[in-house]
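Narrative progress, year one. The postdoctoral researcher (J.K.) led the effort to move from monomer predictions toward full complexes, under supervision of the PI. The following entry was the first complex the group processed end to end, covering 1052 residues in total.
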Amino acid sequence: MSNITEMDALTLGREIASGNIKVREATESYLSSVKSKDEQYNCYVTVDEEGAMKAADEVQARIDKGGLKGSPLAGVPVAIKDNMCTEGLLTTCSSKILYNFVPTYESTAVAKLRDAGAVILGKTNMDEFAMGSTTETSYFGPTRNPANPEHVPGGSSGGSAAAVAAGECVYALGSDTGGSIRQPASYCGVVGIKPTYGTVSRYGLIAYGSSLDQIGPLTRNVSDAAAVLTAISGHDERDSTSVNKPVVDYTKSLVKDVKDIKIGIPRDYFGEGLDPEVAAAVRGAADVLKNAGASVEEFDLSLVNYAIPAYYTIAAAEASSNLERFDGIKYGYRTEEYAGLHNMYKKSRSEGFGAEVKRRIMLGSFVLSSGYYDAYYLKALKVKALIKKAFDDAFSKYDIILGPVAPTTAPKLGESLSDPIKMYLGDIYTISVNLAGLPGISVPCGTDSDGLPIGVQLLADCFNEEKLFRTAYTYESEK
Amino acid sequence: MANIISDETIEYVGILAKLELSDEEKEAAKSDMGRMLDYIDMLGELDTDDVEPMSHAFPVQNVFREDVVTGTDIRDQILKNAPEEKDGMFVVPKTFD
Amino acid sequence: MSDYETVIGLEVHVELATKTKIFCGCSTEFGGDPNTHTCPVCTGMPGSLPVLNRQVLEYAIAVGLATNCDITRYCKFDRKNYFYPDNPQNYQISQLYLPICRNGHVDIRTESGVEKAVRIHEIHMEEDAGKLIHDDWLDASLVDYNRSGVPLIEIVSEPDMRSAEEVIAYLEKLRMTISYLGASDCKLQEGSMRADVNLSVRKVGETEFGTRTEMKNLNSFKAIARAIAGETERQIDLIESGEKVVQETRRWDDDKECSYAMRSKEDAQDYRYFPDPDLVPISVSEELLDEIRSREPEFREAKIVRYAEEFGLPEKDILLITENKHLADVFEETVACGAPAKKVSNWLMVETMRLLKENNLDPEDIRFSPKNLASLIKLTEDRTVNSTVAKEVFEEMFKSDCDPAKYVEEHGLATQNDEGALRETIQKVIADNPQSVDDYHNGKEKAIGFLVGQTMKAMQGKCDPGSVNKILKELL
């Protein structure tokens, strides 16, 4: 079959289940796609050809023995963001400091995928330690946007988004701390969902901002996203912040019906800085849903501008502590020459971390330091509470909040990194979602005049993924 | 710029964070951090006197494990990625005088 | 010197007696080759996450209740950030903002009879660090994370103590309370109880505190007493010579009997505490408190009073038996089996202590059951065995917890109650030892002792010396 690399995950899964396509055949198709394209896009840090072929044969054997019946993703090749630990497979966080780190344990999300019969092709490129919005801060070089290789794929899950868009995998896992799934999904023209905090176990996810990080899928369509999220979510005893709720089959929400859905559009999202083409595409998406029967109105969300400073304070503080363990003692990079313990620490870390990571570690260490904790960190946690309350108020009136994912389409390579604050401003629509722990999905809603993809973002209240999928599916079907 | 970051502050944060910056990086860090703090100072516009700080976005409490041994000897795995090891231990620059 | 007073507060770390570490399922067992009790969590591997051991919380609350603390009903863990190789994450999970217990006190009584309350500022839960070993060959240090993540509570007192004697009374009180709760064995020498001494001096009558120093590495009561004396002198000397005491952490070297500052320009002492986002808050319910309260044992003070009233034991016995809760439990259970209290006490104080000492064991290691001890006492009481045989049986019981009656039976150790056989033996002894018989008749009372001995020997010890004596006198 020639069109394997164009199939979505559920279609390919069905073909494999019915025996029309062998897992080996599907895996080989994707590996050859990676071979022909990845030199150009650099989606992968590690391609695990051998492991993938071995997994393909094992999954095929399970299927042939009548196993994996209830698993729609069995045999479907997937790519994993390189900040999730994979047993026996290099896991770098796209950082020099972990350039040689091979975990001896598996992250829970990846283990769940393996149980479901997934074939892991390799590990995708990202901004170093997920700090960035362009995938340009990777130690292994930037990933390019398949829609236009002059442009970035977004970030930090840029490798995952680009790999899905380029047909170098059927779907991928990413992680989202301030928009790192939704924004690259939008830039690359794929679907990306950040579930409610606590839905997917963080065990094995190398932490950036622990109170904000969530793993989620990047897929070709809404149906795949629902299937993948169903496979990776669920309570995990090893993650204290994992919510103990029964697993939901999100594919049951793939229904074209929004007649009971009340959609609110934050007026504040359409102010200064939003590209008019993006604004038009997003309003167009709202119209589609309105025509499908949803009620749509504008409202004032408030506090939108305060989310970025609150987020960067909290994320940097947590990151400064989370990244202390990279010290050249237990794993990863150790500097060649040093004079004593503290010099070894300083040189290993200074040589091992890139500029953006160091910038955030410095900021985070400062805001937690003696005399500044209350003024910065505690203040940010209070603002977080206010932002959460603003969303609570909004969700007492609306089922779904609709808006843009990012102010613009994907910028050109090299345009963003020079001014950090300008770069951080690009996160304005995605960041508050992480502060409030909400689920958010990015669905393609058009392209700009240069042909670059635009995404629309839908948000729901915590644990209302079902409404999110139903609305997103309806939009995708009706557009 | 309201927040002026001194050389001493950058030096001090470098000690806390175990980062050694080149002179060039130090200058960049001073300016970046000053600008970021100016930006963060915007939070001061909000009255948060009666607001409880929020660590987790929703209330999960009392997550425990039972006191049952589940660990086994996996020393070889634990040491597998060590830059230097000896006698089943990690080697570090000496910590005793 | 005498116009100064020493002001002391203590930070006491106690290793809790859980089976597993505070945040992972690794064993806390001592010994074991380096790093064989480790996992991704307690070695700070990327992506690993902590989950709190319920038993740690319950022990911490139990100690808090027993030391009259308020239990914090909504508490959290914080990260204490500092780089050191024994700390694999380079932060220690501890509690700063909302510790589990606050505002407690314990009543102490010193050797010389001073009675006072020492207030407890707070008790918090935290994880222990790994161990660093110096390697001469490499001129480097080696890290073993077996102890990393072992649960600790840190008990922080107010600066309420004024002498080494008070400090030792306070530590003894904590040790007794915590070991009675079963929350720790509290051994100073083995490091399961560690005390850091915060000390300052001031002129008598002054109300302000002086600048304090913190002293670490105190492994025995003697070292603590010496360190307090040494540091008091050092601080007074500084003040008298017009210098200032610097607030710092000092390490006590008990061999050289002096302390030295543990300063380094790389130690900023700025721990950047913040709530650990990987752990969720703990809400302590009234039910949990009630449950823990209901499990609280009778403490030593109460036992001392009750043993005097109920058993009429001498004070010496009571103090020894109640020194250890397990020993007291064995005592009480043996008495409950019907054995006379003083007899039980004697067995525990003499033979048990001797065997524990000889075998380098603790009272916790006692293996014989109270039922068997009671049964042995019964055998001696009804003269089935004499005291020499009883000791032999006890030694076996101490080793293997054998049933004494069965053991006596199987080994034919019971006293011969067949008077005919005994008379026959005695007659033979008299016949074989004419000299002693003569001596006896010549008024040498001692000679009868020799004849008793000979009889016992001939009977292989299986007879009651009292009966032998009686029959001998009769036949002579």
